[in-house]
Amino acid sequence: MSQQQLSAGVCARLSEAAPDEVDGLGAGYTVQLLSIKKVNQTTSAAPAIDRYRIIFSDGVHFVQAMLATQLNDLVSRGEIIKNSIVVIDKLTCNFVQDKKLLIILDLQVVSKEEEKIGNPVSAPSSSILPPDTATETPEASTSTASRPVVSRPAAARPAASGGEGRSIYPIEGLSPYQNNWTVKARVTHKADIRTWSNQRGEGKLFNVTLMDETGEIRATGFNAAVDELYDKLEEGKVYYISRGRVNLAKKKFSNVQNDYEMTLERNTVIEECVDTTNLPTIKYNFISLASMENLQKDATCDVIGIIKEVGPLGEVVSKATNKSVAKRDLTIVDKSLYSVRMTIWGRQAETFTADDLPVVAFKGVKVGDFGGRSLSMLSSSYMSISPDIEEAHLLRGWYDGFGTDKTFQSQSNTMLPGGSSFSGFNRNEMRHLSDVKESQLGMSDKTDIFSTRATVMHIKGENIAYPACPTQGCSKKVTDIGDGWRCEKCDKTYERPEYRYVMSMAVADWSGQLWLQGFNDAGLAVFGKTADEIMEIKERNESDYNALMAHSAGKTFNFSCRAKQDTYNDQTRLRYGVSKMSSVDYYEEAKGLRDLIKESSWAR
DNA sequence: CCCCCCCC
């Protein structure tokens, strides 16, 4: 790299430009980063997002700018370091204490490791730099305890010019000290209206997440603001918003990346933006599913993958609140040949459909450590099915071209003690039945999990199904009350029940045999018929039923099981439950063996 | 002014 390749003159131009001219100067400047420094945040007691101050040079002059926080990964991953050459693709300007502050919104790395080019000096106007650093040269700025830049009390002044002649403020620059702002933001999440009731009173509220190119912020409307504004905002749309209140965020309650949050008030002005140019879009920092194991539990991350499996709709009852919520597990895979379980909740779980293995992008999903690594949507997370972004198209192309053929290593079943697996059947972690007994799985207080391949030898025929509540997600046993079937849980009476399987199966492999308890999914796998159909056969013709039971033996399945002790009538016994059961797919097995051979060192 | 983000 030479001085000629840098965009000489740009630092002087940026430095001298009036604030509302900065955006108009365009972008695409090639510059050298002379310094990258973390700025200490002293205004917020809660842990803050890192902010980086950059000094960049065009070879002649240097200026100072802030790095938009969504680019922080470039620093933390070491993709930009001192002296890296970058192209600044997008730049804006903000006002702090009447000083112009440049914010780098997007950049591309041209070359990471470089020598310093030329001998640049501070750009002519000092108005870009805060007074305490205006005369510093990059080499001399050794102070690590820099003053906070963005969140100081400051005169409110609009930063950049919007399309319709209004002044648009970047979300990253919002603080309690600015008041005359308008943001142009996309609603990336809109929650349902919630009500609360506690000692201090009761009321209703809703949350939205607002996002522009510079950042995101959570906004909440209470009571009257709910009536006034809830219907005005639609997820996915872009709005001009002004006259909201900005306060310090209580970080422990939100995963939205902002030190502040916004309260929408009755007089908050919200106007839909219909101008289709330059709308804010979601910014992702995708990580590969392979690299998930490096993340801590409860961290959030962005991932993109193919939806390989859509689990059935389930229900969990929260231990904390005793409330029931719908959930659904998805399995996503990516180019790193890893798969991971992704749990979605509530209405999203109920309405989720995905026919043809779509690409789905997730932003801000929570990392769990159950059975290895798993992911879960939060209310602040964002999911986009078949997003029109480059990464999605690349993944689509790769998967359709090569991916369908691959086997994926699950993040959600590694690292369990004893090397067992979670819900997915894992060929590498399989146990023989004798091994299950000998290693005393399920004998400790917790549930142990294992995979096995075994053949069904016998199914206890007398009681293979029970009359269940037909309400989706209930499945509780109902009782015949003469003129109908009563579900205590739903407090309803139904004309007829929906039978569901509950079976004891003896299964065997070369090493031994075991009794497994299976539920509805297991019955469907064994019989290929619903329990209703089976019960109908049983009622119509007992010998047909007996023949069916006899024929059910002899088939071989892959099982995912849980071993657990339970106590019933003062008797403690070890029970093995089937969590997943599927016919052996010999084509899949052969592919798995082939991949094993490919992976083994002697074959390389 | 809410504040739960769940379960195996």
Automatic annotation (TrEMBL):
Keyword terms, alphabetized: DNA replication, DNA-binding, Metal-binding, Nucleus, Zinc, Zinc-finger
Stored InterPro entries: Euk_RPA1_DBD_C (IPR047192), NA-bd_OB-fold (IPR012340), NA-bd_OB_tRNA (IPR004365), Rep_factor-A_C (IPR013955), Rep_factor-A_N (IPR007199), REPA_OB_2 (IPR031657), Rfa1 (IPR004591)
Low complexity: bias regions: 130-161
Localization annotation: Nucleus
Residue numbers spanned by region Disordered: 116-163
Domain Replication factor A C-terminal: 450-592
Gene Ontology process terms (BP): DNA recombination; DNA repair; DNA replication; telomere maintenance via telomerase
Annotated Gene Ontology cellular component terms: chromosome, telomeric region; DNA replication factor A complex
Domain of life: Eukaryota
Main localization category: nucleus
Domain Replication protein A OB: residue ranges: 290-385
GO MF annotation list: DNA binding; zinc ion binding
Residues in OB domain copies: 181-265
Occurrences of domain Replication factor-A protein 1 N-terminal (ranges): 28-111
UniProt-listed Gene3D superfamilies: Nucleic acid-binding proteins (2.40.50.140)
Family stated for the protein in its record: Belongs to the replication factor A protein 1 family.
Quaternary structure (record): Component of the heterotrimeric canonical replication protein A complex (RPA).
Described function: As part of the replication protein A (RPA/RP-A), a single-stranded DNA-binding heterotrimeric complex, may play an essential role in DNA replication, recombination and repair. Binds and stabilizes single-stranded DNA intermediates, preventing complementary DNA reannealing and recruiting different proteins involved in DNA metabolism.
Name the UniProt record assigns to this protein: Replication protein A subunit
